Amino acid sequence: MKKLFILLLIGCFFVSCDKFVLYSIQNSSEDELIVKAKIYDSYIDANNREKSLFFGIGDRKVISTDTVNNIITFVLSQNDQYDLDGCTNCELDFEFIKEINVYKKDSLVFYGNKEIIKNLYKNSEIKANRGVFYIYKN
């Protein structure tokens, strides 16, 4: 029992020093945004494609799903945010989201593929272990 306690205590020292960073986009506009996210094939469960697409969506209103092309379209309400990726002590990968389009009313306000999103966050300041890209009203 004592060995187990010591092992847990030592394990806590290694784990507690790890830094977790979450990267997301936030709707800071006065309107709802429509987000169309394309997911990499490697993150889709072939046995349950639709469930894989809903990962991270929560209770947001889903407009459509395309299980052939791995695309989900949903509403991002005012002051809501959608998490793109998160990692512990790692470099930006964005291996889940292949491409993302954000629309406000009928206009495209943001387009990002893996490289655009990585560069966006590499050049931003991380606060409170969060990298947030804000979308404001024009």
Describe the structure using short key phrases.
138 residues; alpha+beta; elongated; 21% helix; single chain; 3-stranded mixed β-sheet
Count all strands and give the number.
8
Placed side by side, the strands forming the largest sheet appear as 3-4-2-6-7
Largest sheet: 5 strands, antiparallel
Helix/sheet category: alpha+beta
Extract low-pLDDT stretches: none
- With helices defined by DSSP (H or I, 4 residues minimum), what is the helix count? 3
Order of helices and strands: HEEHEEEEEHE
Computed CA radius of gyration, to the nearest angstrom: 18 Å
Q: Roughly what is the average pLDDT, rounded to an integer?
A: 75
User: Cα distance, first to last residue?
Assistant: 62 Å
Question: How does the overall form come out from the CA principal axes?
Answer: elongated
Helix fraction by DSSP (H/I, runs of at least 4): 10-25%
Q: How much beta, percentage-wise?
A: 35-45%
Describe this structure in words.
- This protein has 138 residues and is α+β, with helices and mostly antiparallel strands.
- The mean pLDDT is 75.
- The protein is 21% helix and 40% strand.
Briefly summarize what is shown:
With 138 residues, the chain is an alpha+beta fold. It has helices spanning 2-16, 49-53, 114-122; strands spanning 20-27, 33-39, 62-66, 71-76, 81-88, 97-104, 107-113, 130-135.
Furnish the topology, listing elements before pairings:
Elements: H1 2-16, E1 20-27, E2 33-39, H2 49-53, E3 62-66, E4 71-76, E5 81-88, E6 97-104, E7 107-113, H3 114-122, E8 130-135
Parallel strand pairs: 1-8
Antiparallel strand pairs: 1-5, 2-4, 2-6, 3-4, 6-7
